[in-house]
Amino acid sequence: MTALENASTATVHEQPSVPHRSRTGVVVLFVVLGLALVACAVLSAGTGQLHIPAGEVVSSVLHRLGLGGAPVASHPHGESALWSIRFPRVAMALCVGAALATGGALMQGVFGNPLAEPGIAGVSSGAALAACAVIAFGWSFLGPWTTAAFAFAGGLAATFLVYLLSRSGGRTEVVTLILTGVAVNAVAGAGIAFLTFLGDTQAREQIVFWQLGSLNGTRWPYVAIVAPLVVVGIVTATGFARRLDLLALGERPARHLGVDVERLRIVTIVVVALLTAAAVSFSGIIAFVGLVVPHVVRMAVGPGHRVLVPASALGGAVLLLCADLVARTAVDYAELPIGMLTALVGGPFFLYLIRRTRRTAGGWA
Amino acid sequence: MTVTLSARGVGLRLGETTVLADVDLEVRAGEVLALVGPNGAGKTSLLSLLAGDLAPSSGEVLLDGRPVMAHRPTELARRRGVLLQENRLSFPFEVLDVVRMGRAPWRGTPLEDDDDAAVARAMGAAEVVHLARRTFPTLSGGEKSRSSFARVLAQDPRVLFLDEPTAALDIRHQERTLALARERAGAGDAVVVVLHDLSLAAAYADRILLLSRGRVAAAGTPAEVLDAELLSRVYDHPVETLERADGSLLVLPVRSVEAHA
What we know:
The complex is a heterodimer. Chain A is mostly helical. Chain A is 73% helix and 1% strand. In chain A, a hairpin with a 2-residue loop joins strand 1 and strand 2 (171-172). In chain A, helix 2 (24-46) runs antiparallel to helix 4 (78-111), helix 4 (78-111) runs parallel beside helix 10 and helix 14 packs across helix 15. Chain A is globular and about 65 Å long. Chain B is an alpha/beta fold.
């Protein structure tokens, strides 16, 4: 065994000092996002036809929390406008943004592809189709949960369909994923068109505006339905974030490291459908948030899902708060559809991502 | 020597093709077993069966006395580590993070405390410390291979499966990688390594299994298996073996004069 002599060169392993990743960047990111979230929420709550200064918004919140402060005094209807119109809407924007961005991050993780997004892959439109059916047929047998439940079922069906159709040999190629999304979107679009045709005038109008996406008319009971779903989704996702990291190595290496890959996939898909349904059920289709936010977070702090998932949730909330503020205030006495706004920004961003990925070839593999 | 892993009458059929048939083998603790054979002989498939990635169509693979696929995923991950030929990553993780992923099976066990030290040792051994902060997709083929090897070393399994670990490596790192494999065997682990370079197999393996068209053509010590006549037949190319003064064995293809012209 002559190799033993060679082997002796490798026998002494001094323990080298490996440079550690500093956590400063992560801390800074969370602090910045947290501050931005509070600032945007206060600003958004105070802005509108009835202006309430930021100081009074904060003071009113403190008052309700029993921490001093005082109700809004600058305007007779200020307090009620703030608590029955503005705050539910702010809370909804926050929930929906967090849900969409987290859904995107998870979907990218499970497909091993930075271009996967619930909207592009057809998950949102699957959920939308089911929700439109509820509107068109006036179903209400599950009470206020009807739309959310149907959106969840539709989103889940669409996710599994996309998943089964676009995977082959354990990998998802971007081209297949996007083309599958095109097909699913087309079929769901046809279904929605048919429902629009079937519905009465009121249902039609509701469907049309719902597809454009809007947070208009949000009330606390809606928030009470959406918020728990979003919280459950994000908490569950944070729980299996570490395993999603391993999935980046590929299916087999992840299994070699002890990940039950099939189970992880199915759980992730259910959570994505849950988050998408939560986002879509009351606010309609708001695209591209799930694409833009995780991407920016990855550029800032790297791809580790334990940071990516919660940071995307925060980032999505901030983004949607800002988008909703613009939607409400850009045009006087009218409201722009928020889905239109996010698509306006997200579409070109998607193009940029495609070009970039193509150059580095990584995402096409 | 303790038998860690054994395959009995293992066969694999994919559709109409018989990829492997009637393979018997034992992997023993403290030993390096090399799988060699021509392209398409079934080396990688055999490795997949042994590692529990694929279920055999016939026969059985036992790891520590139980069918390999009956182990729970985490349990299996603590017992065996696998280095594949191709190592890719969907997202730009840093090399340090990738090596750290090797520690995943030990989460929640007392050995978790050893994580940092195990990662540092593995990176030192595979000579990738200087790559720690580089992102994996920016590495060269050989650097990716070494970083992935470091990941498997950090996993610290009792059985290591290495599929052509030296394919993308320069001479120094070929030798180093196999020396590390030997060292693991010396510490009591079992190593199964797929190799194309028969001289490397001769130098580092305790035993060699020669596959030909899905069947075992020969199994035994390097001196027994690396027979010029047998190899020439299996590889369908004239091969000669040379014994050097120090007793080491060289396996070389016979080249016609025109090849140098």
